[in-house]
Amino acid sequence: MVYCTANDVRLLVSTTLEDSELEHFIAQASAEIDKRIGAQSTSDQAIEKLCALITAYTIKLQSPQVEALGDLVKIDAGVTLELWRDEIERLYRLYKTPIVKSSEYASIDEEARYPG
Q1: Cβ 61 vs Cβ 15: under 8 Å
Q2: What are the helix (H) ranges across the chain?
């Protein structure tokens, strides 16, 4: 099951990749989400955002980290990647299953607990 579309990814990153190529990366991002937090609803917009961010992050990693636009202007993609990574981890934390800890008692004495 996939959680976002090629258009969702294109809202985050400009790319010359075809939709079929983007769909391959989207499938990988969706599989990562399933492995890390389990299957989710395809209508959950936070999961859609998470999938699009993971996919955009993967695509951005393949492009140069610094691009020159003319003689004086340079764009540093490292800051964008760092912000996206932080947002990806924040979204994962929203879905993290809380860990239930057991009590310190090894057993419960039912007779003492419910006398009578």
Answers
A1: no
A2: 6-10, 19-37, 45-62, 77-95, 110-113
Q: Indicate the pTM of the whole model.
A: 0.74
Q: Which helix (H) or strand (E) holds 34?
A: helix 19-37
Q: Does any domain span residue 91?
A: yes
Structure tokens at 31: 């599989």
- In a domain? residue 115: no
- pLDDT value of position 107: 66
pLDDT digits (tens, 9 = 90+) for 21-33: 999 999 999 999 9
Secondary structure (3-state) at 74: strand
For residue 36 the two structure tokens come to: 């890390």
Count up the domains in the chain and report the number.
1
Backbone angles phi, psi at 61, to 5 degrees: -65, -25
Percent of the chain with pLDDT over 70: 72
Cα angle 97-99-104, degrees, rounded to a multiple of 5: 165
- Between vectors from CA 75 to CA 77 and to CA 17, what angle results, nearest 5°? 60
Residues paired with 68 in a beta bridge = 74
